[in-house]
Design a protein that fits this description.
Layout lengths: L18 E6 L5 H12 L4 E3 L8 E8 L6 H5 L3 E9 L1 E2 L11 E2 L7 H8 L4 E5 L8 E2 L2 E2 H5 L10 E14 L2 E8 L5 H12 L3 E11 L2 E2 L4 E2 H11 L1
Parallel strand pairs: 1-14, 3-12
Antiparallel strand pairs: 1-3, 2-3, 4-11, 4-12, 5-6, 7-10, 8-9, 10-11, 12-13
Helix pairs in contact: 1-6
Length: 233
């Protein structure tokens, strides 16, 4: 496994199969990380184990060669995120990717209410996937329809949130840490949390810190990895 501590890439067999812990920066798509690693290593097969939105940063497990067969195993692991919910504002994408379309006052919202409602989002719950997602509908990704202003029915999915802690409340922002099962949309949690408070909300920042026992603290910075690999192989 290639981590931030790896300095010698000369013996890596990227076509045979390697697992890379990558730290995706804000503004990059998950595909861009895969593209850069494929170009740098020359591996014919490269894939990642769980998409991160462009506005999110953090841990992305990238597999090459025969290790791509293990992607499903990593996808099934619990994931941990830290981030902020911005109360009083909503957007179609439920984050800052699209323009804010509504603003509401936060009058009367207390810390006690926030902590009480937080408890409603723990355990096994049902969540409706957002329109701004890669889920397919009649062969097309939902976000293509969303950008045309269209909405279609999405069936609620069962997810489990094993941890939802709030580290700081500095209205209009709430700072959180969430550990959840695959298929969880943190954007939806932010949106639904705001609706339960009656003021609306959106996801204003997000970072994936863990996938199972794998930590972003051990992940390589992609540009550093590309530079070192290009020199050594």
């Amino acid at each position: 496994m290639i981590t931030r501590e790896t300095t010698d890439f000369s013996n890596c067999d990227f076509n045979g199969g390697e697992i890379i812990l990558a730290d995706k920066p804000i503004g990059w798509s998950s595909f861009k990380v895969v593209y850069k690693i494929r170009n740098a290593t020359g591996a014919k097969k490269v894939g990642h184990a769980g998409t991160l939105d462009p506005n999110a940063s953090g841990l992305l497990i990238v597999c090459t060669g025969k290790k791509t067969k293990e992607i499903t195993k990593f996808q099934d692991l619990e994931k941990t995120y830290t981030g902020t919910i911005l109360l009083g504002k909503t957007s179609p994408s439920m984050d800052l990717e699209t323009e804010i379309t509504e603003e509401r006052l936060l009058d009367g919202i207390t810390e006690e209410q926030i902590l009480e409602i937080r408890n409603e989002f723990t355990g096994t719950i049902r969540q409706i996937p957002p329109m701004f997602s890669a889920i397919k509908y009649k062969g097309k990704s939902l976000y293509h329809l969303a950008r045309q202003g269209k909405t279609v029915y999405r069936e609620a999915r069962e997810i489990t949130i094993s941890k939802f802690s709030i580290s700081r409340i500095s209205l209009p922002e709430i700072y959180f840490e969430i550990t959840c099962t695959k298929g969880t949309y943190i954007r939806v949690i932010a949106h639904d949390f705001g609706e339960r408070l009656g003021c609306g909300g959106l996801l204003s920042s997000l970072r994936r810190t863990n996938i199972g026992s794998f930590s972003v603290d051990n992940a390589v910075f992609v540009d550093d990895f590309v530079e070192k690999v290009s020199v050594q192989i």
